[in-house]
Amino acid sequence: MTTGPRHRTRQQHDEIAHYLRTAIREGSFQPGDELPSEAELTRKFTSSRGPVRQAMSALRGEGLISSGRGRRTVVLDNVLTQSFDDVISFSQWCHASDIVPGQVTQRVAREPAEKSLAASLRIEEGDPIVSVFRLRLMDEAPAMVERLNYPFEFGRHVLAFDTDSGSIYQELIDQGVDINRASRTIDAVGANDDDARLLEVPVGTPLLRVRRRAFTTAGDVIESSDDRYLPWKASFTMNSTRGNPSSMSLISGD
Amino acid sequence: MTTGPRHRTRQQHDEIAHYLRTAIREGSFQPGDELPSEAELTRKFTSSRGPVRQAMSALRGEGLISSGRGRRTVVLDNVLTQSFDDVISFSQWCHASDIVPGQVTQRVAREPAEKSLAASLRIEEGDPIVSVFRLRLMDEAPAMVERLNYPFEFGRHVLAFDTDSGSIYQELIDQGVDINRASRTIDAVGANDDDARLLEVPVGTPLLRVRRRAFTTAGDVIESSDDRYLPWKASFTMNSTRGNPSSMSLISGD
DNA sequence: CAGTGGTCTAGACCACATG
DNA sequence: ATGTGGTCTAGACCACTGG
Question: Which intervals hold domain HTH gntR-type (chains A, B) (predicted)?
Answer without folding.
Answer: 10-78
